[in-house]
Amino acid sequence: MADRLPSSLKLHHSIEIEFPCEYLLKGGEDMVLLEPSRIEDRYKPLPLVPNDTIEKRYPWLNRSETTRQSYYPATSVFDADIFSEFSDDDDELEATDDLADDLERLSEYVGSSKLEVITYLPSNLDEDERPTCDCPIRVRICRTTLLKREDGEVEELPPAIYEYTVGYWNDISIDDALNQNWENDLFDIMHQVLDRDVRSVQFTLEDQGFDYDEEIDSDLWVPSRQMPIDQGIGKFATSLTKRELERYNNTLAHDDRLLECPSCFEDYDETDNRAVLLPCSTKHCMCFSCLEQWCIQNGLDKVSCPHCRQRLMPPKMAPQTMANYLDLSAPFTPDPQFTDYENAERSYASLDCIASIEDETLILIDHDLLIDAWNTIVPCGFDRNVPARLIPVKAPEAWFFFRSFLQTVKQHHGRTTTAQKLYRTLRLKVFEALRAEFIANGMDKFLNAGERARLEKRPELTPMRMDFRPFVEKSLDRIVQMAKKHGAVVSPEAGTDLAAETDKD
Q: What is the spatial distance between Cα 292 and Cα 276, in angstroms, rounded to a whole number?
């Protein structure tokens, strides 16, 4: 099985990993998740900018961006008539107990395989045998394979089950024996090596009704990059020195005086047990230590008074306390707590707040501005910890993206239009280019009549890598907004001269 990065627009066999799949468990077995790799040195994956508008449009590491999928060039097409001539003993599509060998053979055919995976504890382990290490943990894999025919139909092979141990995968990883991309994908997602793997596991668990934080202890991660608790408390509460507390008590009735913390019953002092007056009532007070724990437990943005349950943090200040908070009204400044990739993504937050597809701002199509925006956004739009084969901008399809983009901005240079129409034109031309390549490689013959008809009308339906379409749309959205930000806006009186051509498209 060739281990290179083929185009999804050419003959290929794709292998997708889904983990964890709880339905694979048998009676008495328990699902168990391994701790994410290097969890003690990592931040739990959270939106890089906690903003409802951005998260709705571009969810942080959404499902398509977290799917583990590898591609292999195919050299054969399934023919039912030919394969019917083989006996069972000679059938090269017959499953064995060796997953790698089976995929080596099957990946020669145009089609796809899906590996559904679960890590579990066998039912015959006694309580005292429950592992403190991952060696006794088993790995069960269910492979389903679809082989495509040239008439648009598919041949579904019988599901096959494979059994391993986690120790087996760890050993071949240590020995550098993970020879194929799908093997690396399987190892990485089981160990949640990358942030995208963590998010993928979260998505899959949610679909099955599980809470990720109940499976993986949240306290194991490095504390989130957010406002310190003591600073957050200072946003809504007032700490009192002993002298200030005495003066304050003199204003209260004798029975209402604040002498000890109602939570730990310790007398107020000048240290961690100092009195902190809450904003909801003149009589609601706690020691700093107890309030700090209460905020840690509930979150600064959601913490409420333990006496009356009134929300403590003012609504306008609550967003400032969230993990990875960024003030979008201020000029962006890189934060050393974040990687270069994360800082780049955070710097685009102001662009992501505006949807180009809805933006009626009139702009001048300036070739230089748009190319500069491309060079700023697209080459840097990936995490350097992610393998190159998982990065859309490094995929073979990216060439058609760039060529189409370059041709379109050159063709329309100097014209005026709205941001919306420019975005739609660029998007249409990119997907038309991808569709043309798909058809030129004969891939359309593997579609049925209905799929071909839909593809003819809607080029964005061209089958491609799962993460490539959202990559194109997000990149174009940011490019248009960046060009607009850097001077492409023109006065409404200038009018638009791209509408007619866009309508023709």
A: 10
* Percent of all residues in the chain with a pLDDT value above 90, rounded to a whole number: 73
Neighbours of 381 (CB within 10 A): 18
Count other C-beta atoms under 10 Å from residue 412's C-beta: 22
User: Side chain identity at 52, as an amino acid letter?
Assistant: D
Measure Cα distances from 442 to 12, 20, 283, 329 in Å: 12, 36, 77, 50
Helix (H) or strand (E) holding 334: none
What confidence score (pLDDT) does residue 384 get? 75
**Which residues, 6 or more positions from 53, have their beta carbon under 8 angstroms from its beta carbon?**
352, 353
Structural contact between residues 210 and 189, judged by C-beta atoms closer than 8 angstroms: no
The upper half-sphere exposure of residue 386, i.e. CA atoms within 13 Å in the direction of its Cβ, equals: 22
Structure tokens at 268: 């107020």
**Contact call for residues 111 and 140 (beta carbons, < 8 A):** no
Spatial distance between the Cα atoms of 153 and 446, rounded to a whole number of angstroms: 7
The SS3 call for residue 492 is helix
Within 8 A by CB and 6+ apart from 173, the residues are: 187
Q: Please identify which residue in the block is written with the tokens 């201020």.
A: 330
Q: How far apart are CA 278 and CA 138, in angstroms?
A: 52
- CA triple 376-377-383, angle to 5 deg: 115
d(CA 262, CA 260): 6
Using the structure block, give the residue that is written with the tokens 């995490």: 383
Every domain of the chain and the residues it spans: 12-220, 229-321, 354-504
For 467, the 3-state DSSP assignment is coil
pLDDT at residue 383 in the model: 80
Greatest extent of the chain over all pairs of C-alpha atoms, in Å: 99
The per-residue b/e assignment along 18-44, b for 16 or more CB within 10 angstroms, e otherwise, is bbbbeebbeeebebbbeebbebeebbb
Q: Average per-residue pLDDT in the chain?
A: 89
Confidence of residue 503 (pLDDT cuts 50, 70, 90): very low
Class of domain 229-321: alpha beta
What's the Cα-to-Cα distance from 243 to each of 248, 249, 288, rounded to whole Å?
A: 9, 10, 16
Handedness of CA 37, 41, 42, 43 (dihedral sign): positive
Summarize pLDDT for 107-153 with one digit per residue, the tens: 999 999 999 999 999 887 655 554 444 468 999 999 999 999 888 88
d(CA 180, CA 142): 18
Choice among 79-93, 286-300, 402-416 with the minimum mean pLDDT: 79-93
The residue type at 437: E
Interval 345-390: pLDDT, tens: 999 999 999 999 999 999 999 999 999 999 999 987 778 788 888 8
